[in-house]
Predict the 3D structure of the following.
Amino acid sequence: MRFGLLGPLTAQDAAGPLAIGGTKVRILLGILLLKRGQVVSADELKAALWGADLPATASSSLHNHVTRLRRTLGPEGAERLRSVVPGYVLDVDRGALDSDRHEDHLGTARTARVREDWDSVREACAAALGLWRGSPLADLPALGHSLPYGPLLQALDEARLVALEWRCEADLRLGRYDGLAAELRALTEQHPLREGFHRHLMVALHRTDRQAEALAVFHRLRGILADELGVSPGRAVQEALADILRGDGEPAPPKPAAPVPAAPGKPAADGAAAPPGAHVPAQLPPVSRYFSGRRAELARLDALLEEARGHAGTGPIVVSGPGGVGKTTLAVHWAHRVRADFPDGQLHLNLRGFAPDGSAVTPDSALRSLLEGLGVPRARVPAAQEARTALYRTLTDGRRYLILLDNARDAAHVRPLLTGSATSLTVVTSRDQLLGLVAVEDAQPVALDVLSPGEARELLTARVGHARVTADPRAVDEAVELAARLPLALAVVGARAAVTPALSLTRLVERLRRARGLDAFTGSDAWSDVRAVLSWSYETLSADAARLFRLLAVHPGPGITVPVAGSLAALPAPRVHTLLTELAEANLVTEGADGRYAFHDLLRSYAVELGEAVDSAPSRRTALRRLTEHYLHTAQRGALLMDPQLPPADLPPKAGRGVSPERLADIGEAREWFTGEHAALVQTAVRAGESGLDRACWQLAYVLKTYLSWGGHWADGATVQTAALSAAERMDDPTARARAHRSLAAALRWTARDAEAGTHLRRALDLFTAEGDLAGQADVHLDLAGRYERQERPAEALHHNTLALGLFRERGDRSGEAKALNNVGYFQALLGNHGEALAMCDAARLVFEELGDRRCLALTWDSLGVVHQETGDLERAAHCFRVSAEGLREVGAPFHEAVSLDHLGDVEWAAGRPQDAREAWRKAWELLDGLRHDDAEAVLLKLGR
């Protein structure tokens, strides 16, 4: 498949162009292509599609748009659009985007420009420009104004302008002046701050004997820059002016000559031509032939360089990230791409800030190496560090050097090595975020994380070859996940594949899977051993931060908040926040936009290894107990906010030592907390059971039931309740076993396992009866009634609800009695006993209003709607269903909200309002489809009426 970004969005497969219908579907595809190979969260996509005014059905609507996009892209494209927590990723091969081909042409032009092969420069730039059909994603202007995507589109447009500049430069070098001045004059009008177009226009006018006009262009540019930015034209424009004033027929090229230091502290005059044989350092390491991906980061670096051109320089660029993430590879690749912009030379120095033997290069030694790189004889390098820094800054002043300082330990390691020159650029790589440089030295950060799935696949494909990937495509995907998309780990996998060409990738992946943790990614030396590389960052941590790093492996992930980490480590929130910040600055964890801290799977494996080696098994189990207690006490508070009538779990009044549960204020906060901690809650319950914390496992499952059931998370509910049942059986607690059987049945009933649900309900009823637990027996009878309702057996359902009503009345449970009354009324209506049904449902409504039980009150309004529908009072029925759906939406019960909306659609259709009916059914279908519920198909059929 091929896609077009360089103009209105386009897509085509082997059969031809594809029609991408609907603005939201086009926006969705545009975003996924701009971030191809990266997981784009559902929250980010919803914000892009609807802005701040999110509809209640945003999640299900997003799912529908993704479904339509998959349908549009056909079988091949649909397979590439994958659902990956927490959102979606579109895997697109390199070269499938027109922007890829533009980048390739520009790379060819860049190489030819260094060789001064101007015919090739012009040909490559013309090919690049020929791909453009308008502004990037011109049919989706909203993306250009949004923060996440505007810079990406601007980077694409910047690449177009670079191609234009270079093509014009090639025309000037080749003497192709016809029409060039007119084109350049239009470009200077469109881009008044872009000095390159003004310089080319001055040269074009000068070479066609229009010197006065050329001088006027300079004066106009000088005025614009002074008014807008308070700066003067740059060196290249000044040199073009000097050539015009001298009357030279062939103006000097825009690249300045390199300086030749005559003596320490006395460099050659700015702009002086270098004599033949001038010293121009070219110290950049070779480019990796396997470099791939990192398009967003490369665009960010290009944008920073362009900003430096337009604003008389910039601070240093800091490329940071965890060990093995490819910082040096990216910096070297980009430095080679832009080396032509720094004709005075390129310096490179490995500072060895995290070397395993502690042999970091001191600032004093680094300055000596840099000065020697600039051509200063060793004997003339000053002895004092301050003098060396002064000479270094003097020699680089006014010159265009690119300095790559690799593997810095901290900000103090780098500060003496900064040039102070507005025309040179320093790029620093480090595992540390170097916040001191960002805060004080105006450094520009470029943070690296692991590769996106698509980029990781590209990298591994480049290393092992397309033939082996084609033979074992699934093995490649599994290898990418086993390597946690970490470039160093992928390089190790690629190297092993290269030295064993007869071994299939499937067999290689089997070996990786069998290896324990990081053992799968050991290299032949420390620099290619993932465990060793990660250890160099860990060894820089304070003792408390190192302990927290090890403990984070106890948390199941994917991310942890400060309050949860505080309980895990038994530390106050301010202290744990400080330690998490230390870990983030060392790039051992990453802080997400939601305030959660996470690390990739190989870092997790390393933390597990360290924990097993350093911390005792009892201390790790105690940490898990604290984590479970934090979740248990907070979840109980949230469950009671959602359902005030829920009998609470029997917990101590206060959590254990070191545990600080979160204080949830209302039902909104409770739902938000449950949603954010969803995955961790499920896994913590399972892990607690596996670790022998049986009572905590059962209790956590109990307090999670309300959230998981109301939200339609039945598969996770079944997972949690299965663990709880096993724990209850080990506890030999009949009441706990009975509740677990009942809760598991409730989850299984909605996951197409109705027969199993019936077995668990009968077992729960036997246990509750043996224990004399009337409330438990009544609850099971309500559940049995619900099961019979699903089987369309209203008489049996009424029987069990009547039994439940008697039991609730016997024990004086008003809330339970009201639930049973509502249910009895509902089934009486279905059986034609409308008067009795209305009286019972209305009585239940009054009790729920008094108790403040919003969910049960909303369900009762649905029952009242059914009664009125059965009697033919369609208007009153519609009113009841609307009130029910709104109430259920407010408390976060999407399945039952969908049921009420479905009922509302039926009534509107019967009342002769088909448009209103379809709107209600559409909302119901979106909710059910979002829950992956089987009833969605039946509602969809109604929409087709």
